[in-house]
Specification:
This protein is mainly α. 58% of the residues lie in helices and 1% in strands. It has one domain (2-274). It has helices at residues 8-21, 32-59, 67-78, 85-97, 112-116, 130-136, 138-141, 144-168, 170-193, 213-218, 225-230, 246-256, 268-274; strands at residues 64-65, 260-261. α8 packs across α9 (170-193).
Length: 277
């Protein structure tokens, strides 16, 4: 196993974050305000930052967001500590270009543990070089703010951690950083693993993507993954009436407030064309 580890900094960082989260089981590090704050930050960084901005807006351009709001939510995405916008978007675009094939960074054919976590630090020929990231996300690479976020994402997390420590003590730090990151990480990773094998397929996509109902409920609508792979451009992932998509409702609210435009969804004809039989 040691010989296969290719990215020690990622492995060490993830290990320390998970160890830090274990402090939550010590009563001295618990408080109800810290618990509540953790969920608020998790929602802001995960639902608004990663799901709404990184994924549906920046990666797939399923909608156009008012630029100040786009930058604000992208900053929240950087605080999810899953990489800066250029790194995150380019990796996800590579996943769609080679879904469950050679070239997919987290190819689910290599097993659940690989697609869930191991792809991040074990030897992985599909991990993008910096040049490849820039080629796959030229739209973001051309934006000075996104280059800034990509470079200083870890620094943003350190600043947030210090702010939480000063404002609420160790309980706020443990829950607002470590516990929150562990929960957010595994929700994101389950899209790569569980939503490529568990659930049902409504559309013919040529890959293993599935609609995983329980994951759809806890991941702000991202678990309707077969729908997403069928129509990557769609701002709406939960297409059928019972496929609850929290992020889609946020998008509708933002559209009503005139903060987003050019919201894309598949037509009935598109859906019928790819419908699984």
């Amino acid at each position: 196993m040691l010989k296969k580890i290719d990215n020690w900094p990622v492995l060490i960082g993830l290990s320390l974050i998970h160890l830090g989260a274990l402090l939550a089981f010590i009563p001295a590090f618990f408080s109800w305000p810290a618990f509540a704050l953790m969920w608020i930050i998790a929602y802001a960084t995960g639902a608004l930052g990663v799901t709404l901005c990184y994924h549906r807006t920046l990666t797939h351009r399923g909608l156009r967001m008012w630029k100040p709001l786009e930058y604000a939510t992208a900053t929240l995405g950087a605080l999810a500590l899953q990489g800066g916008p250029i790194a995150w978007v380019s990796t996800h675009r590579a996943h769609h270009a080679h879904s469950d094939k050679v070239g997919d960074p987290h190819d689910s054919n290599r097993g659940f543990r690989w697609s869930h976590l191991n792809w991040l630090y074990l030897a992985n020929g599909a991990i993008l070089t910096r040049d490849q990231q820039l080629r796959l996300a030229p739209d973001l690479a051309a934006d000075p703010y996104y280059r800034f976020l990509d470079r200083y994402a870890i620094l943003f997390q350190i600043v947030l951690g210090l702010a939480l420590l000063l404002a609420g003590g160790w309980s706020w730090l443990v829950w607002g950083i470590f516990v929150r990151l562990v929960i957010s990480y595994h929700l994101t990773w389950l899209i790569n693993s569980a939503a490529h094998g568990l659930g049902y397929q409504s559309y013919r996509t040529g890959d293993r993507s599935t609609n995983c109902w329980w994951l759809g409920l806890v991941s702000w609508g991202e678990g309707w993954h077969n729908n997403h792979h069928a129509f990557p451009f769609s701002a709406r992932h939960g297409i059928r009436w019972f496929e609850i998509d929290h992020t889609w409702h946020i998008i509708k609210l933002l559209k009503w407030l005139r903060l987003v435009s050019n919201v894309k969804v598949p037509s009935i004809q598109m859906r019928r064309r790819l419908q699984a039989h």
